[in-house]
What does this fold into?
Amino acid sequence: MNKFLVVLSSVLLLTGSAFAEGAAGGSAMSSILMLVAFFAIFYFLLIRPQMKRNKEQRKMISELGKGDEVMTNGGVIGKIVKVGENYTELEIAENVVIKVQKSAVSGVLPKGAVKTN
It folds into this structure.
């Protein structure tokens, strides 16, 4: 967070001086520098965190196995009874098994979270 504040304050200082120079007929270099600074802010605040989340999601899906307790994007909680290439079968109640896409699994729950009666 401290790095973010340092970058943000330096960008604000650079853009403030770029606007002041622009009003007085400043160079094109300051405008280019301002665009690069804005791209860097968007990269570190939006693009990079989203790429990290996608990577973690792909890793979690690739490590799914029989017996894992998971939750789907729709809120269905169940225990994996079979894992296929694109689909997985979840037991959501005793003798009730549904088939869902692996990409629909939003998270793995701790062991013992699902109780089938």
In short: The radius of gyration is 24 Å. Residues 20 and 26 are 8 Å apart (CA to CA). Helices lie at 2-23, 28-62.
